[in-house]
Specification:
Elements: H1 5-11, H2 21-35, E1 41-45, E2 53-57, E3 60-64, E4 77-78, E5 84-88, E6 91-95, E7 98-102, E8 105-117, E9 124-133, H3 148-153, H4 155-159, H5 176-199, E10 205-206, E11 209-210, H6 215-218, E12 221-224, H7 231-242, H8 247-257, E13 258-261, E14 272-274, H9 275-281, H10 283-303, H11 308-314, E15 317-318, E16 324-326, H12 327-333, E17 338-340, H13 343-353, H14 355-360, E18 365-367, H15 374-380, H16 383-393, H17 414-439, E19 448-453, H18 462-478, E20 487-492, H19 500-517, E21 526-531, H20 536-542, E22 548-551, H21 563-569, E23 573-576, H22 582-589, E24 595-596, H23 601-610, H24 614-620, H25 622-633, H26 645-653, H27 659-678, H28 680-692, H29 699-711
Parallel strand pairs: 1-9, 12-13, 13-17, 17-18, 19-20, 19-22, 20-21, 22-23, 23-24
Antiparallel strand pairs: 2-3, 4-8, 5-8, 6-7, 8-9, 10-11, 14-16, 15-16
Helix pairs in contact: 2-29, 7-8, 7-10, 9-10, 17-28, 18-19, 18-25, 18-27, 24-25
Organism: Callaeas wilsoni
Subunit structure: Homodimer; enzymatically active. Interacts with PPP1R3B; recruits the phosphatase PP1 which dephosphorylates and inactivates PYGL/glycogen phosphorylase.
Keywords: Allosteric enzyme, Carbohydrate metabolism, Glycogen metabolism, Glycosyltransferase, Phosphoprotein, Pyridoxal phosphate, Transferase
Length: 740
């Protein structure tokens, strides 16, 4: 038809139904589960408005609604035949026959199914997203004095549940609508799972009653952080109140069904719901949580008599001020397996955050290091590099990324070195053209592309990168004749709309860019770009073009990170702290093949013990002092010299993430980066060593570990015959296995 496929792809909207790493990880996991032939479903909410679109106006972030369904979504299929009721509010009535939750408000959950194809194996799994609908008698069944119009308009109240994604990453906001969303997805999904179980040959019925003994052998439910934690009391409610199972039996089945993945150790991110709110919205669930807690604490008390402080620490209910439910504690108690998402993170989970629980049941705690799908993050986004690798080691690596180790044989192959460098250069030229079109800045494609893209957060330390930019700027101006390795520094990411400091950081980066990019003394040596509206489709463009990947969180704060893995696979080198999966990347590639700097977890702990004094570093390091003074004096904001007072004040007096403490090591490490970049061949050889070591970070490996250690299912590499080929009768048998 004379249409350009790439042009067509550009038109399609991203399904921005998550905030950052958590949602993207789930997407990679769905791809891997289908590719590994697992009978797996991804459940979530079909938000009408996803993560906001970010506009930069006068250097400030401005949010716009993400109306991603405006032109329809051809990939989804509504399934009204599977619509399910979800209940809210009401009250609990106790009688001889048990508890009854009555006088509730009902919202309907309408499922939309999106196919998830495995890679070249004719397997297609399902992602089922729930949309909220008001029942047709909504507000009309109450002997309403007859305001029919208002009753129909009020349907919006029920349907608001799936209206919009809360845009916080690593931050808990205890709003009623958010709790409604969490229970909505949980209640609909559990009904769906139980309906499917009862329809299968395993849900055998004695007269009327289903026998649930085999439930955990047929169903595994993985809780992606604590956001679906209400699934634990909800499944108990179904078993005890509706299916009339005895408590102990129900609890045993529930625990064997659930497993919990922890994704953060930041205290402000941990979900702690006020008891009053839960009591109003989900009164029966609060009673069940209290009962779970009572039995849990009785057990602790029997093991540790008179240890009241331990009981307080391990309780699901936090007293003091407003009573709150600690959702992470609920998940740990209600699951048979708990895991972190990188070795270092899983250690912190065990030894610090949940040490009391790990002391009690050490066998419950595991590690499952995150991964990324090589289909999207290599084949799709970087076909040049994928093809080059295939020429050397064949095409099988796409389904078995560990085969990348074969590239070690070519690390001294001059032709291969040149080809790898050439692919990177082509990707850079292509991205430079994109930047020039979008930002009207002239980019030097032979400059080092230094990229820092992720959500804007103090712990990720975009501010430290900013201080380095100012330091480079000052060095160029101090000695313009001195050799300087040219850099294009690209920073991108969204700030939560209510996160003042993150928004100030964006403004600061743009203010610095304004000065640097327009200084004739700097010219093409240094350019700074804030990448607007960072999202998956933009990541697919920038990552293949990157030379240097910035992974500079304070040690002990980034649970894993997955962007780090994407850059490694696409031929960038990493400057980073010993945090999250960076530790394992260094382990795989050899620490000498990454630019590792700064405090380790032990150093951070020691500094906390001594007391972090930012002033000390400011006084000792002249280049740091100069950069901070420039921010403070209004050098980057001449129209409003006090604009960045809050930022400077934070850096001196309440910087939890110790930017100044790592500044010197960071700048020195960056000098080593520049030095290596001058030697193109040595740089590219290090790139090849990194790509060759990236195999561990496939989400296929991660999912195989979940399947083996937690879900107890076998992945199958059997290619199902396509529907147009007749099957043997023997091939029609589905192997028994858990649906994850």
């Amino acid at each position: 038809l004379g249409l350009d496929m790439e042009e067509l792809e550009e038109i399609e909207e991203d399904a921005g139904l998550g905030n950052g790493g958590l949602g993207r990880l789930a997407a990679c996991f769905l791809d891997s589960m289908a590719t590994l032939g697992l009978a797996a479903y991804g459940y979530g909410i079909r938000y009408e408005y996803g993560i906001f679109n970010q506009k930069i106006r006068d250097g400030w972030q401005v949010e716009e609604a993400d109306d991603w369904l405006r032109h329809g979504n051809p990939w989804e299929k509504a399934r009204p035949e599977y619509m399910l009721p979800v209940h809210f509010y009401g009250r609990v009535e106790h009688s001889a026959s048990g508890a009854k939750w009555i006088d509730t408000q009902v919202v309907l959950a309408l499922p939309y199914d999106t196919p998830v194809p495995g890679y070249m194996n004719n397997t297609v799994n399902t992602m089922r997203l729930w949309s909220a609908r008001a029942p047709n008698d909504f507000n009309l069944r109450d002997f309403n004095v007859g305001d029919y119009i208002q009753a129909v308009l009020d349907r919006n109240l029920a349907e608001n549940i799936s209206r919009v994604l809360y845009p916080n990453d690593n931050f808990f906001e205890g709003k009623e609508l958010r709790l409604k969303q969490e229970y909505f997805v949980v209640a609909a999904t559990l009904q769906d799972i139980i309906r499917r179980f009862k329809a299968s040959k395993f849900g055998s019925t004695d007269s009327v009653r289903t026998v649930f003994d085999s439930f955990p052998d047929q169903v595994a439910i993985q809780l992606n952080d604590t956001h679906p934690a209400m699934a634990i009391p909800e499944l108990m409610r179904i078993f005890v109140d509706i299916e009339k199972l005895p408590w102990d039996k129900a609890w045993d089945i529930t625990k064997r069904t659930f497993a919990y993945t922890n994704h953060t150790v930041l205290p402000e991110a941990l979900e702690r719901w006020p008891v009053d709110l839960v009591e109003k919205l989900l009164p029966r669930h609060l009673q069940i949580i209290y009962e779970i807690n009572q039995r849990h604490l009785d057990h602790i008390a029997s093991l540790f008599p008179n240890d009241t402080d331990r009981l307080r620490r391990m309780s699901l209910i936090e007293e003091g001020g407003t009573k709150r439910i600690n959702m992470a504690h609920l998940c740990i108690v209600g699951s048979h397996a708990v895991n972190g998402v990188a070795k270092i993170h899983s250690e912190i989970v065990k030894t610090q955050v949940f040490e009391d629980f790990a002391a009690l049941e050490p066998e419950k705690f595991q590690n499952k290091t995150n991964g990324i799908t090589p289909r999207r993050w290599l084949l799709l986004c970087n076909p040049g590099l994928a093809e080059l690798i295939a020429e050397k080691i064949g095409e099988d690596y796409v389904r078995d990324l560990s085969q990348l180790t074969k590239l070690h044989e070519f690390v001294d192959d001059d032709l291969f070195i040149r080809e790898v460098a050439k692919v990177k250069q082509e990707n850079k030229v292509k991205f430079a053209l994109y930047l020039e079109k979008e930002y009207k800045v002239k980019i030097n494609p032979s400059s080092m592309f230094d990229v820092h893209v992720k959500r804007i957060h103090e712990y990720k330390r975009q501010l430290m990168n900013c201080l380095h930019i100012i330091t480079m700027y000052n060095r160029i101006r101090r000695d313009p004749a001195k050799l300087f390795v040219p850099r294009t520094v690209i920073i991108g990411g969204k700030a939560a709309p209510g996160y003042h400091m993150a928004k100030m950081i964006i403004k600061l980066i743009n203010a610095v860019a304004q000065v640097v990019n327009n200084d004739p003394m700097v010219g093409s040596k240094l350019k700074v770009i804030f990448l607007e509206n960072y999202r998956v489709s933009l990541a697919e463009k920038v990552i293949p073009a990157t030379d240097l990947s910035e992974q500079i969180s304070t040690a002990g704060t980034e649970a894993s990170g997955t962007g780090n893995m994407k850059f490694m696979l696409n031929g960038a080198l990493t400057i980073g702290t010993m945090d999250g999966a960076n530790v394992e990347m260094a382990e795989e590639a050899g620490e000498e093949n990454l630019f590792i700097f700064g405090m380790r977890v032990e150093d951070v702990t020691e500094l906390d013990r001594k007391g972090y004094n930012a002033q000390l570093y400011y006084d000792r390091l002249p280049e740091l002092k100069q950069a901070v003074d420039q921010i403070k004096s209004g050098f980057f904001s001449p129209k409003d010299p006090n604009l960045f007072n809050d930022v400077v004040n934070m850096l001196f007096h309440h910087d939890r993430f110790k930017v100044f403490a790592d500044y010197e090591a960071y700048v020195k490490c960056q000098e080593k980066v520049s030095e290596l970049y001058l030697n193109s061949k040595a740089w590219t050889k290090m790139v090849i060593r990194n790509i060759a070591a990236a195999g561990k970070f496939s989400s296929d490996r991660t999912i195989k570990e979940y399947a083996r250690d937690i879900w107890h299912v076998e992945p199958s590499d059997l290619k199902i015959p396509p529907p147009n080929e007749p099957r043997d009768a023997g091939q029609d048998k589905t192997p028994n296995g858990t649906a994850a």
